[in-house]
Predict the 3D structure of the following.
Amino acid sequence: MENCIEQVNSPEDLKKLNYSELLEYCDGLRAFIMETVQHTGGHLASSLGAIELTVALHYVFDCPTDKILWDVGHQAYAHKIITGRADRFAELRANGGISGFPRLTESKYDAFTMGHSSTSLSVGLGYARARDCRNENHEVVSVIGDGAFSGGMAFEALNDIGAAQTKMVIVLNDNKMSISKNVGAMSQYLSKLRLSKRYSHLKYTVKKGLMGIPLFGHHIYKALDKTKDGLKSLMQNNKMFEQMGIKYFGPIDGHNLANLVSVFKHVKGEKGPVLIHIITEKGKGDPVAQSDPSKFHGIQPLGAERENTFSSVLSRFLCAEAEKDESIVAITAAMSDGTGLTEFGRLFPKRCYDVGIAEQHAVTLAAGLAVGGLKPYFAVYSTFLQRGFDQILHDVCLNNLGVTFVIDRAGAVGADGVTHQGIYDLSYLGIIPNLTILAPRNGVELERMLRWSLTYRYPLAIRYPKSYTQDGECADITYGKWEILKQSKSKIFILAVGGRAIDAAMPIADVHLVNARFIKPLDTEYLDSINREGNCILTIEDNALAGGFGQSVLTYLHSKGLRAQVQAIGFPDVFLEDYSIEHSLESADISTQGILKHLKNF
Ligand SMILES: Cc1ncc(C[n+]2csc(CCOP(=O)(O)OP(=O)(O)O)c2C)c(N)n1
C-alpha cells in the first residue's frame, strides 16, 4: 500500500496507471488517509467519501493548467496526496507542515485558498471568465458538497453561471450530509433527483466517447452497460438546472471510478456550464466513520485530552431555560454539534432552526424572530459570523433587536489554521452601535452571562473560545462593569479579556488584575479611576490588535486626556498562519512570559 502511494507524486503519474491499478490506488489512498488522520486529526469522513472522485478528476483533467476548486476544501486530502504532498501528509495541520485545506501558496495544484463554505462556484466562474477574456482554453471544475450547496453564495453564483453560459463543470458531491444531516428544500430536491431515473438522448454520445479512453474505455463501457440503469442513469433532462441554463448529468454513483471517468471525459467537450450530480457516502471505507459520519466529520488526534467546553454550558443552559420560557429559540448554520445545539434541537425541534450553511440568512432570521416576539440565540463560530456582518449591523442592531449571538471558537483556533481563526470578532463587532459584547472567563461566568441575557432586550454578543481551564466563582453581571480579580498596591493594571488572557495573567504577582468582561461598553468609570500619571495599563485579548479591545481602551483614554501609560497585547496585523493554539498565544505574548516582557517596558 505504501508503495502504491509512493508511486504517485503527480497527476501525470496517476495517468500512467491502468484501471485495476487505479482501483488499487484508491484503496491505498483510503488506508493511508485513515492511518495518518488518526494521528494528525482532521476531516476524515469527507475525504474518505471523495477518493474515487478525486482520482477520476485528476485522471481526466490536466492540473495545474485545468483548475479544480474544492469547496470548503476539507475533502481535499486525496488531492494533496496525488499532487506531490504524500511525504508531508503526516504533518497535516501542524506548524511547519501542510494545511488541512487547499492553499494558493502551498502548491501550484491548489487553485485557491479554501476554508469557508460555498465559494467554489464564484471562484470557478471567475477563473472561467478570466480564461475567456485572455483567450485561454483550460477547464474549470468546482467540486461542491450538498452541504456547501445550501449556502447563499452558491445560489448567487448559480444564478450568474446560468446566465454567463461559459464553459465550466460543477461536481455536486451529494452524501446527504453537511456536518450533521443536510437540511433544506434544495436538499429535498436533490433527494428527489436521486430517486428519479429518466432517460436522455445523450446516451449515444457518451457511449461513443467512452471507447476512446486509453487503458480504460473497455472497462468503463462494460461497467456502465452491465447494470440495468447503466448509461441511462448518467444523464437526464433536469428541470431546475436545465432551465437555469446548466446542463445536468446524474445521479451518478460517486464511488464507481469507471462511471466518473466516463462522465468527466464526456463533459470536457461541453461548451456551456454543466452540473454533474454524484452520490457518495461520507466515511466510505471506514465502517466506524460510515456509521456515524457526523462524529467523524472532523476528528481529534488519538490521545487528545477531553476539554471543558463552553458549548456544553450553552447546551445545558438553553435546554433548561427553554423548558420554562417558550419564547427561547435557537439557530444554527449547520453547526449544531460544534456549537452545542444538538440536544436543544432534539428536545425542542420546533424551536431549533438549522438553516444550512447560511450565516447571513441566520442573522436576519434571528432579527425577524426577535421582532416577531421571540428570544433568539444564534450559536455560531466566530470565523463564520464574519459572513453576517452587514446583517448584524443593518438588520439586528439598527433595529435594536433582542438577538443574542453566542460566538464559539473565538480567538486562536489551532489546527484548522488561518481560514478559521476567530480573532476578528471584537474588531468587526466593536464598531456596531447598539451591540453589547461580553467575554466569559469560564463556564460559571458564561452561565451567569446567559442568565443575564434573559433579561436583556437588545443586541448582545457573547464570545468565547472552545474551552476553558477551570471553573471558579465569579461576580454577578452588572451592565458595563468589569470584575476585579486581584488588587495590589502596585501601579500596574492588567485588563484581560476572556479566560486565555486571564489564565496568562493570573500567576503574575503584585498587579491589579481585571476581568474585562464587558468589551462594549467599556467600564469607563473604572478606566477614569486608573487614568493617572504613573499608572501603567496593559490590555490583553486573544483578538487582532487592530480594532480590538486595547484599541478601544486607548481611544477612550485619549478622548479623556491620556495620563497613564498604555500597552496592548493581541494579534498583530498579519494573517495568523499557525496550527497550534498554544503557539499562537505565545507568539502574540498572550502568556505569562509575554506579559512579563511587556511589563518590563513600562
Ligand atoms: C461559511 C462556513 N460555515 C460553516 C462551515 C463549517 N463546515 C465545514 S464543512 C461543513 C459541511 C459541508 O458539507 P458538504 O459540503 O456536504 O461536504 P461533506 O463534508 O458532506 O463532504 C460545514 C458546515 C464552513 N466551512 N464555512
Observations:
- The domain at 308-468 is CATH 3.40.50.970 (Rossmann fold).
- DSSP finds 27 helices and 19 strands in the chain.
